[in-house]
Amino acid sequence: MTRTPDSKSLxxxxxxxxxxxxxxxxxDNKETATVILDAAExxxxxxxxxxxxxxxxxxxxxxxxxxxxxxxxxxxALFDAVFARRTELVNQDRMDAMTRYEEEYxxxxxxxxxxxxxxxxxxxxxxxSDPGWKNYFALVGLVNNSRDWGAKTMTAHFDxxxxxxxxxxxxxxxxxxxxxxxxxxxxxTGALTLTLSDTGRLDRLSDGRCSSSDxxxxxxxxxxYAAAGFRAVCKPRT
Amino acid sequence: MTRTPDSKSLxxxxxxxxxxxxxxxxxDNKETATVILDAAExxxxxxxxxxxxxxxxxxxxxxxxxxxxxxxxxxxALFDAVFARRTELVNQDRMDAMTRYEEEYxxxxxxxxxxxxxxxxxxxxxxxSDPGWKNYFALVGLVNNSRDWGAKTMTAHFDxxxxxxxxxxxxxxxxxxxxxxxxxxxxxTGALTLTLSDTGRLDRLSDGRCSSSDxxxxxxxxxxYAAAGFRAVCKPRT
DNA sequence: GTCTATAACTGGATAGAC
DNA sequence: GTCTATCCAGTTATAGAC
Lengths: 238, 238
Known about the structure:
Two copies of one chain form a homodimer. By secondary structure, chain A is mainly alpha-helical. The first copy, chain A, folds into two domains: about 10-75, Orthogonal Bundle (Arc Repressor Mutant, subunit A), CATH 1.10.10; about 85-235, Tetracycline Repressor, domain 2, CATH 1.10.357.10. Chain A has helices at about 30-45, 55-60, 65-70, 75-105, 110-130, 130-145, 150-170, 180-195, 200-205, 215-235. Chain A is elongated. At the A-B interface, helix 1, helix 4, helix 6, helix 7 and helix 8 of A face helix 1, helix 4, helix 6, helix 7 and helix 8 of B. Chain B binds a DNA duplex through helix 3.
C-alpha cells in the first residue's frame, strides 16, 4: 500500500514509524479497546474496510497489532464493532425524539417537524462532539454508498428507525402514495449521507464559501429543502 | 480475502477457478484492453480500489494477470483509466445539453429545465445502456462518498460541468444567494449519487415496491423534488 | 495484558520464454 | 501479445515468552 505514494494519493497515509515507547498510560487512559476502536474508526472512515490494515490501526494508536487481535479477534469483527458502537446510541435518540414529537403533536405533525426529529439527534452530534463522531458518520456515508454488503449493513442497523420515520411522514402527508414517500426518503438520505461523508468536495467546489461540515448552515437548509421536496413529490397523483 | 467468507460477506465474491481455456476469440472479440476495463469497472464498483486485486480482475475476464500490467501498468493506472473512460463521454453530453437549453430559453430558464439538462444525459445512460454504464455510475457514487481522495477525484473530473450547472441555476433564480445555491446543489448531488450507487437498499427497505434502478420512476421525481427544494432554500433571505 | 516472533499466505509487479 | 514462473513486500492471525 505504501508502495504507491504516487499520482492520486489513493493510498492510505504512509504508516508512521512504529511508535517507540508504548502508549502513554495514566493521565489519558481510555480503555485500550476504546483507543483501538477510535483509531480503527478514523482509518476505516477514510479508506474503507480493505484500505486499512490491522497494523495501520495498531500504529495509529500506538498499540501492538497482536493486541488488536486479542481484543477483537478478526479484522472483520473489529469493523463490525466500530460500526455498531455508535449506531445504537444515535438511533435510540432518534427513536425517542420521534416518539416525543408524535406524542406532542399527534395529528398536527408537519414534514418539517418529523424531519427535525429524525435528523437533529444525528446532526447535533456532528456539530458538538469529538472527532470520533465525525469519523463514524463518514463511515456511515461510505457504507451507504457501497453496493451489496453496504446496503445489507445499513438495512441491518437502520431499518427500524427509518420505517418509523416513514410512518410518521405518512401521517403528516395523508394523501401521499407509499412509493412517493419511499423515493422522497431516498433523496433525503442521499443528501444526508453525502453531508455526513464530509469529503471536502463542497468546500473545494465553492472555493471555501461553503463547507459540508458547517452543520449550522446545513441543517436548516436540509430540512427546508427536504420538506419542500416531499410536498412536491407526495401530492395526490392523477 | 477469500479467507473470510464468514459473517457479513464483506469479502469480495470468491475468486472463480482460473479459466482453463483462454478467453474465446473471434465472434466476441472486443479489444483485450476493453475487456479488462469492463471487468475492472465491475469489480471496483462493488468493492472499491482496495477491495479488488489485479488477479481478480484478470480472472473475471479470463485473461492473464500479467496482461493487465502489460496494458495498464499499475493497478492505480487501471483504476484511473476505468474512471476516465466514460466520464469524458457523459460530461460532454451534459455540457451540450445545457448549452442547447440555454440557447433555446435564455432568460426564460426554469429550475426544472436546467436540472433536466444536467441530469438526463446521465440518467438516460443508466436506463438504456449496457451494464457497464451501471457499474461505472456505481463507482462514481462510491468515489463521491469517499473522503479525501474521493473528493479530489470528483473535483478533477466533474468541476467544469457542475460550475456550468450552478451558473445556469443562478440565472434561473436571480435572487438566490450563492451559498444557498451551493448547498442546494450539494443536496441534489447526494440524492443523485446514492441513486447511481444502486445499492439495493431502497428495494429492500420498501419490500420491493421501489427500486433505485427504476429510472423511469426516479427521474421525474428527482427533478420535481430538487426544483421544489431549490426554490424553498434559494429564496431571498432577510 | 502486552510484547516478540513467526507461520502461512496474498498482493503488485516483472523477467523472459514463446 | 500472451503466458509461466517468480520475486518479495506486506497481510492476517496465532503461539508463546514475559
